[in-house]
DNA sequence: TTTGTGATGTTATCTCATAACACTCCGCCT
DNA sequence: AGGCGGAGTGTTATGAGATAACATCACAAA
């Protein structure tokens, strides 16, 4: 993450064990749904989980090979597209980055609180059913997907300079 | 706009007279604020107003010269950045496009209902004070700007195939 | 007129994302 | 076993979106 300030007070990226566990859970669920958790998909999800914050696609591409070899862009973009479709990852449009889903659900709408200072990002339940949904109803629109992202400062960065 | 279907039931782009009027109003307001409505800014705003729907940056670049000559990218991106800063235009992150503000206000948060079928886009008052604001408060985030975009089908496209 | 600031012109480059096509893997039918 | 057929990958190339850097210009204040 490009830091506007010096703080690095994330919850801390999950440890290897936690990543492993989340990965297993995702694989189990996908298999049950008749989908395949292939090597590329698993690797990209592992990178997202390990990062614990939004990651740029080309950073994933650079880190893809365990040996330091980068991947070809389509390899990663295909995996991202799949993970997003399955609700295991989300694209943050306002910063063109990707993040592992932290709400565990299947395909679902999500909203994000993004700290422009330290990069910390929180996924919160999407308020589609609320204000936006009412506005859409009033206008006669049938909503199919949403992009809801709020930028600002996280609690820690509000205090520090 | 890339049409998934054949419908073209926008409110219709505003006529030349309306564009001229909106342009004048914007110029007057900017002058009063000590800002300059330069040729490039005026031209880009005119193109956005005339389109009446989101336009890609490189379409603006292509249409920039009245004589058909394209502009250089920085010319248009600088104008867009200015217009956005002044609340006269908005960037729609989910489709990487730009649209003239239809709520007349100064710098302000906005939300959009976007029809994936015909491209019609409505700007609605941003629900920052609502659900999202509450989520941010609960998490301790101080919001500075938002990206709120809902994709789906407009009333007309819900009926037609 | 001088001088400083904001705006623009111009070139080059960077980042983000996808098209297209050949090939492989794997389950399934015969 | 043999032969589909569809999903997934590898690879090359290119399209689309955005900005860095620096020279120059316009304009109003001093
Ligand atoms: Zn999620
Ligand atoms: Zn922070
Ligand atoms: Zn607006
Ligand atoms: Zn429509």
From TrEMBL, chains A, B:
<feature type="binding site">
    <location>
        <position position="115"/>
    </location>
    <ligand>
        <name>Zn(2+)</name>
    </ligand>
</feature>
<keyword id="KW-0805">Transcription regulation</keyword>
<keyword id="KW-0804">Transcription</keyword>
<keyword id="KW-0238">DNA-binding</keyword>
<dbReference type="GO" id="GO:0000976">
    <property type="term" value="F:transcription cis-regulatory region binding"/>
</dbReference>
<keyword id="KW-0678">Repressor</keyword>
<protein>
    <submittedName>
        <fullName>Fur family zinc uptake transcriptional regulator</fullName>
    </submittedName>
</protein>
<dbReference type="Pfam" id="PF01475">
    <property type="entry name" value="FUR"/>
</dbReference>
<dbReference type="GO" id="GO:0008270">
    <property type="term" value="F:zinc ion binding"/>
</dbReference>
<comment type="similarity">
    <text>Belongs to the Fur family.</text>
</comment>
<dbReference type="GO" id="GO:0005829">
    <property type="term" value="C:cytosol"/>
</dbReference>
<dbReference type="GO" id="GO:1900376">
    <property type="term" value="P:regulation of secondary metabolite biosynthetic process"/>
</dbReference>
<dbReference type="InterPro" id="IPR036390">
    <property type="entry name" value="WH_DNA-bd_sf"/>
</dbReference>
<keyword id="KW-0479">Metal-binding</keyword>
<dbReference type="InterPro" id="IPR036388">
    <property type="entry name" value="WH-like_DNA-bd_sf"/>
</dbReference>
<feature type="binding site">
    <location>
        <position position="157"/>
    </location>
    <ligand>
        <name>Zn(2+)</name>
    </ligand>
</feature>
<dbReference type="InterPro" id="IPR002481">
    <property type="entry name" value="FUR"/>
</dbReference>
<dbReference type="GO" id="GO:0045892">
    <property type="term" value="P:negative regulation of DNA-templated transcription"/>
</dbReference>
<keyword id="KW-0862">Zinc</keyword>
<dbReference type="InterPro" id="IPR043135">
    <property type="entry name" value="Fur_C"/>
</dbReference>
<dbReference type="GO" id="GO:0003700">
    <property type="term" value="F:DNA-binding transcription factor activity"/>
</dbReference>
<feature type="binding site">
    <location>
        <position position="154"/>
    </location>
    <ligand>
        <name>Zn(2+)</name>
    </ligand>
</feature>
<feature type="binding site">
    <location>
        <position position="118"/>
    </location>
    <ligand>
        <name>Zn(2+)</name>
    </ligand>
</feature>
